[in-house]
Amino acid sequence: MPVVVFPAVAMVILSGTATVLQQFVSGLKSRNEDTRAKSAKDLQHYVTTELRELSQDEATTFYDELNHHIFELVSSSDVNEKKGGILAIVSLIGVEGGNATRISRFANYLRNLLPSSDPVVMEMASKAMGHLSMAGDTFTAEYVEFEVKRALEWLGADRNEGRRHAAVLVLRELAVSAPTFFFQQVQPFFDNIFYAVWDQKQAIREGAVSALRACLILTTQRETKEMQKPQWYKQTFEEAEKGFDETLAKEKGMNRDDRVHGALLILNELVRISSMEGERMREEMEEITQQQLVHDKYCKELMGFGTKPRHITPFTSFQSVQPQQSNALLGLLGYSTPQGFLTFGAAPAPAKSSLVESRYCRELMEERFDQVRPSGSVALVRPGLGLVLRWRSDSPTNITDQYLSDSMGHLLGCLKKEKERTAAFQALGLLVVAVRTEIQPYLSKILEIIKAALPPKDFAHKRQKTIQVDATVFTCISMLSRAMGPSIQPDIKELLEPMLAVGLSPALTAVLYDLSRQIPQLKKDIQDGLLKMLSLVLMHKPLRHPGMPKGLAHQMASPSLTNIPEAGDVGGITLALRTLGSFEFEGHSLTQFVRHCADHFLNSEHKEIRMEAARTCSRLLTPSINLINGHVVSQTAVQVVADVLSKLLVVGITDPDPDIRYCVLASLDERFDAHLAQAENLQALFVALNDEVFEIRELAICTIGRLSSMNPAFVMPFLRKMLIQILTELEHSGVGRNKEQSARMLGHLVSNAPRLIRPYMEPILKALILKLKDPDPNPAVVISVLATIGELAQV
User: Fold this and answer.
1) How many helices (H) and strands (E) does the chain have?
2) Over the stretch 597-628, which tens digit does the pLDDT of each residue have?
3) Which of 181, 358, 427, 510 is positioned for an S-S bond with 144, CB 3.0–4.6 A?
4) CA distances, 427 to each of 232, 389, 433, 475, 480 (Å)
5) DSSP per-residue string spanning 626-650
6) For residue 53, how many C-alpha atoms fall within 13 Å in the half-sphere facing its CB?
7) Rounded to an integer, what distance in angstroms lies between the CA atom of residue 709 and that of residue 417?
C-alpha cells in the first residue's frame, strides 16, 4: 500500500531540509578551515543516510537547491567560499543516485576555477578533478582527454603563469587518478611538460616535476619485455642535460639557480624510477623527519577535528560494501592548507608514491651517468644539494674516491652553515648508506659535528628548559648505524645520553628503534634510558624497578633527563604514551606503567590522552596475557589484567566521545577473549550493544558473537533475544536506514556466532529473501542483505 504524504506534512519536510541545507552552506562559507571540513563531512553523511529516506521529489528539490548554492560558492570572489564549494563537490562525487548531468555540471564548475590567483584553490580544484575522473561510465574517457589536451595547450602556449601552474597540477592528478586514459596522451605530455620544468617560478617547476613523476611511474608500470626501448627516458635525460649547458641557458634567459634546480629535479625523478631500493631508503629517511613535523603541528592544533572515520570489516563479504565516499573527501582536505596533508583529526602519514623500477631507465642512467657529473657539480647551490647527493648515493659503484672526497668536503662545509644544515644532514645520511664502510676516513669528523648538534654533557646543570635539535640529525645517526652496523657501537653509545637529554620526540623514538635493531648490543641501554625518560614524563618520578629501594631509585636517576614535558603538555604526554605502547621493551616489567596509565590517563579531560591511553593499556597487557595463556600461574598478572580490563570497559561504555568508545572496543581483540568471556565483562559488552553509534554496536556484536563459544551459557540466551530483535526490525521497520543496519548486524552475528545461527537458518533466510522481493527496494538494504546471505551460506 503506497504511503500518503499530506501537503502540510510535505511542507514541514521541505522546510526541514531547507534548514539543514542552509546550515551546510553556512559552514562551507566559514573562514575557519576545520568548520568547512566538518560541514563537508556532515553534508556527505546526510546525503548518504537521511536524504535516502525522503521521496524522490524531495531529494531532487534538495539537490537542485544544493547545486545552486555550490555554483554561488565556486563563483564567489571570496577564496574561502571557493574552497567550501570544492569540498561540497567532492563530498557528492560517487554518492549513490548521482547522474551524468550533475557530474557534467561539477566538471564545468571545477574547470572555471582554473587558473586561480590562490595556489591552494588550484591544488584543491585539481585534486577534485582527479576524483571526478574516477566517477566512471563513458564520462571518464571524454573528460580526461579534454582536460589533458587543454592542460597541454596551456603549457605549449606563450607563458601565462596562472595557466601554466594550473596545467601541471591537473596533469599530475589525472595521471594518478586515470592512468589508463592518460597513457593515451603520454607522448604529447613529454613534448610539452618541460616548458614548465624550465619556468622561472619555483612552484611551477616543482609542480611540473611532480606531474613528470606521476607520468614516469605510469610508463614504468606499463613496461613489458617485448616492447621496444621507449624514448621517453632518453628525452627526459636530454632535457636534464640542457640544464648544465651554459650557452643554451643564456639563450633562454634563465638564471643559473633556476636552471640547475630544474635539471636536478628531472634527474631526481629518473633516479627515483631507476633504483627502487634507493627510493625506499629515501622515503624511510623522510618519514622520520615528517613524523617530527607532524607531531610539532599536532601539538599546536591538538585533534582539532575528531579522528579518522570509523569503519569495521569483520567478515569478508562486507569488505566491498564499506562506505568509500569519505576517502575522496579526506584526500582533498590535504590541500585545504598551504602546508598540506591535513586530514580529519590525528596526524596523517605523509603520502608515498608507488615504488617502481624501470629496467630501461636504469640502463640509460648507468650508460650516461658520467655525462652529467663534470663541471664541479658537488659545489651546487643549496636547493640542489640533497638531490645531487641522492642521485650519487643510488649508484654507489659510480662514487669514486675523488668524488667522495669532493662531496664530503662540500657537505662538511654546509654543515657549518645554519641555513644549509638540514639539507646537508639528510644528504650526508644518504651518502653514508651508499658508500658504507668507505666513509671510515670521515667518520670522526661526522661524529664530531653530530655531537656539536646535540646537548653537551653538562646541559642539565645550566637549567635550560628546552633545546631544539633538527630531526635530520637523528636520521643521520640512524643512517650511520645502518651503514656501519655493530662496529660503530662505542661511538653511538657515547651519543645516547646527549640524545636522550633532548627530550622525547618522534624522531628520537624512530632513531632509538633503528639503533636497537642495527646494534643489538645497545638494546638494553636504549630501553633503560627510554624507560627512565618515560617514567619522568608520565609518572613524574624516577624509574623504580620492582623490589628496588626508593632511595636507590633516586640515586640511579639520570641527571640529564630534565628536558621533560610539563604536566599540562598534552602533546608530550600523548607522545610518551604512544612510545610506551609501541616500543619494544621485552625483558622489562611494565606493570607499574600500565597501572598508572589506567588510573590517571583513561579519565583525562583531554580526548587525545584518553585515546592514546586506551591503546597503550591494551598493548601493555599483552605480556601478562601471554604469561597467563602459557599456563604460568601469576596472581599479579591475573590481577593486573582483570583491573585494567575492567577500567577499559568502563571507558568503552561511558566515555562521552564515541571515538574513544570505539577505540577501546577495537583494541580488545582475540587476545583478550578468555578474560572478556567472564560474566562481569560480558555485561559491559551487552551495554555497548545499545550505543548510539552504529559502528560501535557492530563492533560489540562481533565481539560478543566471538565469545559465544567460550561462555555459551551466559551469552546464548542474550544473543537469541538479540536475533529476534534484529529480525523484527528488518521485517517491520519503515525506515530504510534501520533495515540496512539490521541486515548488517545480522551478517555480523552469522559470521561470528554460527553455532547460534544454525538452528534458525530457515526463518532467517526467509526474512532475508522477503527483503529482496520488496517492491520498492533500497539499494543499500539489498547490498547488505545479499552480503548476509553470502555469510549464511558458509554456516
Assistant:
1) 40, 0
2) 999 999 999 999 999 999 999 999 888 887 77
3) 181
4) 28, 6, 10, 10, 12
5) HHHHTT---HHHHHHHHHHHHHHHH
6) 15
7) 66
